[in-house]
Amino acid sequence: MTRREPDLRSDERTALSQWVDFHRETLLQKCQGLSPHELTLRSVPPSSLSLLGLVRHMTDVERWWFLLHIGGKGPEFVYWDDEGGDPEFDHVDPDHAERDLATYRETVALCRTVAAQRSLEDVVPRHGDPEIQYSVRWIWLHMIEEYARHNGHADLLRESIDGSIGD
After folding, report:
1. Could you give the CA distance from residue 134 to residue 22 in angstroms, rounded to a whole number?
2. Distance CA 22, CA 2 (A)
3. What ranges do the domains of the chain cover?
4. 139-153 as b/e, with b when 16 or more CB fall inside 10 Å?
5. What is the pTM of this model?
6. Which class in CATH covers the domain with range 19-162?
7. pLDDT in tens, 20-58
8. What is the Cα 133 distance to its own chain's centre?
9. Which residues pair with 135 in a beta bridge?
């Protein structure tokens, strides 16, 4: 898998989209070539952080921001629930690794389509608190921040699994 580098010169919308895609591809690249078991290896106790957990987490983060907020669709989370804890991290299973990766890819494709339909200047209410409103631009920028932070975690996880380092 090769990542596409964002253009050095582009309009704002293209730059935001390309940077989010770059980070999406980075997360998948960190998972590439590992066995299902390796994808579920935890970082350090008591953390439940794993590469597959990050993929599952970002699946629901994509759904929260792009589908629910920008698209106005119901949350339909795949992994998160109201019972507390971190089910996207706590309940990883090597037997479901391929399915979880496919769900992530499908979610990303859907989110790309939904997000492309809104202007960066559009404003959307926060789910559960319509007094708070976000610009679509803010959501795109937040997603870059969210991915950058978690891809830092993915770097460390991957290095601890097989010594691989890099972007």
Report:
1. 23
2. 10
3. 19-162
4. bbeebeebbeebbeb
5. 0.93
6. mainly alpha
7. 999 999 999 999 999 999 999 998 878 999 999 999 999
8. 22
9. 123
